[in-house]
Specification:
Chain lengths: 150, 339
């Protein structure tokens, strides 16, 4: 699409804030419309990065799950589930498909996280647990918006 | 007046007249204003005097009992905790389409947190912080058992023998699990940690406002606290719950360490301790701060679901979801030493 959707969204945000909002009849409606440029800017950022951040995150989670599948201290059933999830691929790069993979992988990650917390004496499990936490921190970094205060 | 406002005035006028034993009243200057996650808030004028109507909408972000907020205002009115004077409670939805109550409007105050970060308020942040945290201390020490109606409403079911931390944790965990549209690995880890490390019993069982943050406080341009608003989530519990909610990282409106945009954590805690006569035990407070992240996340996820499923189309739900969910996860990670 040319002009680029990101360019269009920049202008839309400006029009909503500068032209549409002041013409609304009540302060309540104006205040509501003045929030819309913030939302449009968020959509603009997400449009650009939506597939990238999901692919990055899915790859990182699969890597953690593949390591978990080799951890002998974990229950065999969990190891098999981790191995199966780690073997999946993102062949369909539409955001909805990537999100469905992400949901499935994060469900598995929660199960693994809980299992690792229960066995922190094993050094390999401890290292994997620390790396899992690091990935969770990175996941919040990927989701941050320029307007975020924290 | 727009159509919705005119409609409200038309339906409210005969009810108002009946309340005052008058043949008719003129309601004008009706205007919807922001206020609370679960009520519509309207400002209006009757005979030149300003009032606020808090109306339960058809769909609500947080299901609350309308008479509880009214009872809280009645209990605190005239105390060291400034609140608007509550006037009438109408449980019958036939009048305005939902139960509502009427209270006196507090004139000239500002509660919008972003506006409160700007002049003329910015020059008075130290004063505002004092008012904010000392008043919260007053809520913590408030003798709620003497306010009979309120005590009845707040009283915990005798059959429920769970400690208050567990009651709150289970309530908000259930809400988070019911409303999350995506897996929540960070919140689930926090829940597991909180269950493994319960806090000590509260120093006293207090009134907990439930949403004590800068955006629910009405300040004058001189930095005086005029009213504590939005008591819709009030309950009995550990007073550290309110302190922790106010300290939540997501309320750092200035992008720095000032909690609620007004004062750093240590200053806020010292002011609260001085006013409440209670101690902000670091381990107990840490638990409640982590809990406040779970509670916040449950609310933001609920906003996301309500909008996604079309029950509430107010774009404020989008703001809450897009601007708060990730920030709340980051706040959780920070408290768990994992950011």
């Amino acid at each position: 699409m040319i002009p680029r959707p990101t360019r269009y969204l920049e202008r839309l945000a400006r029009q909503l804030g500068e032209q549409v909002a002041p013409r609304l009849p009540t302060p309540y409606e104006q205040a509501g419309m003045l929030r819309e440029p913030l939302h449009v800017h968020a959509v603009r950022v997400e449009f650009e990065r939506a597939a990238h951040r999901r692919v990055q995150e899915n790859t990182a989670i699969r890597s953690l799950l593949a390591r978990a599948a080799r951890l002998e201290i974990l229950a065999i059933g969990l190891r098999n589930q981790c191995a199966q999830a780690a073997a999946t691929r993102d062949d369909d790069l539409r955001v909805s498909a990537l999100q469905a993979s992400n949901d499935s992988l994060r469900h598995m990650l929660i199960q693994l996280h809980e299992a690792l917390e229960n066995d922190t004496r094993d050094p390999e499990a401890q290292t994997l647990l620390d790396d899992l936490w690091r990935e969770l921190a990175r996941s919040t970094e990927r989701r941050r918006l320029p307007s975020d205060r924290f | 007046m727009d159509t919705a406002a005119a409609h409200l005035a038309e339906r409210l006028a005969p009810w108002w007249a009946a309340r005052q034993g008058r043949p008719a009243v003129q309601i004008d200057a009706v205007e919807r204003i922001p206020g609370g996650a679960s009520r519509e808030t309207w400002r209006l004028s009757v005979d030149g005097q300003a009032f606020i109507v808090r109306l339960d909408p058809g769909a609500s972000l947080i299901e609350t009992e309308r008479d509880l907020e009214f009872a809280a205002l009645a209990a605190f009115h005239g105390s060291a905790v400034p609140v608007p004077e509550p006037l009438w409670l109408e449980p019958d939805p036939a009048v305005l389409g939902g139960p509502f109550f009427v209270m006196q409007a507090v004139q000239g105050g500002m509660a919008g947190p972003l506006r409160l970060m700007q002049p003329p308020y910015a020059a008075h942040h130290a004063r505002m912080a004092q008012c904010k945290w000392r008043t919260l201390g007053e809520i913590a020490r408030f003798d709620w058992l003497v306010a009979t109606d309120f005590a009845k409403r707040l009283r915990i079911d005798a059959a429920d023998d769970r400690p208050c931390w567990l009651r709150e944790l289970e309530h908000w965990q259930q809400m988070l699990n019911a409303d999350a549209l995506e897996p929540q690995p960070i919140q689930q880890a926090a829940i597991r940690w909180m269950r493994r490390h319960p806090p000590p019993a509260p120093q006293r069982l207090s009134v907990v406002h439930g949403d004590y943050r800068t955006g629910n406080l009405l300040f004058s341009e001189q930095g005086d606290l005029q009213a504590v608003l939005d008591w819709e989530m009030v309950h009995a519990g550990d007073p550290l719950e309110d302190l922790a909610w106010g300290l939540n990282r997501v309320w750092c409106f200035q992008g720095d360490e000032r909690r609620g945009g007004l004062a750093d954590r240590a200053t806020a805690m010292a002011l609260w301790e001085q006013a409440s006569g209670l101690r902000a035990d670091p381990l107990a407070l840490h638990w409640w701060e982590l809990f406040s992240c779970l509670k916040g996340q449950a609310i933001w996820l609920s906003a996301a679901r309500e909008y996604e499923e079309g029950r509430i189309d107010d774009s404020m739900m989008v703001t809450a979801a897009w601007m708060m969910i990730n920030a709340q996860d980051r706040a959780t990670l920070e408290l768990m030493g994992r950011l």
